[in-house]
């Protein structure tokens, strides 16, 4: 308990504070001297602060960042996240007719399917078929998706709420997306790649389907609580959805541990 209360000592917290501070400083530059050239950077650091902090925390707990080459993870962040956003955005437009109506409950099924496509494409090649690698790939893809989606929300709000309002949107989404987009995709990949590591190939099993259904339902519940016209206090249930989402992800990845790096054996005389 004492260690949990000292969260400010952990790397994830330092990363989060540094990125939030940099985003706020860039917004201050815009406000004081009117230099709009730094706006994309302010949006990026604000949108990425929460997701990157969670990635650092998960890596420190599990060591998953060592399971896949860094260039592959960067590619999954940049291109996997972009492909997922493209697929999700296309089908969202086709199948969701109202952001405030019941069709918003379809979004979880659409976007969770979209985010699993890039990691699945890698798995189908027979590469990185381990649970640790799958979680790393899934989280990288979901981070790219979440960051770019948050930046799009900020761009929309800047016209009505100004730069400060857009920064507020980024700060709030930076607190929520790590416990939504990242853990939903991470849950699916933890279960799927765990099965595929044992089987040695990509197969569809009941646990994988169950993980996808759980992630899609939680995703849809989250979006429904935040957008459908319901009584104000009921919206706070999205906090419970976030807590359940992270708990499921934690349970699915608690067996992952950092690899021990063994040095040379001591010389015996």
Automatic annotation (TrEMBL):
Keywords: Membrane, Transmembrane, Transmembrane helix. The chain crosses the membrane at residues 12-31, 37-58, 70-91, 128-147, 178-196, 203-221, 233-250. InterPro entries: PrsW (IPR026898). GO terms for molecular function: peptidase activity. This is Membrane proteinase PrsW, cleaves anti-sigma factor RsiW, M82 family. It comes from Streptosporangium subroseum. The lineage of its organism: Bacteria, Bacillati, Actinomycetota, Actinomycetes, Streptosporangiales.
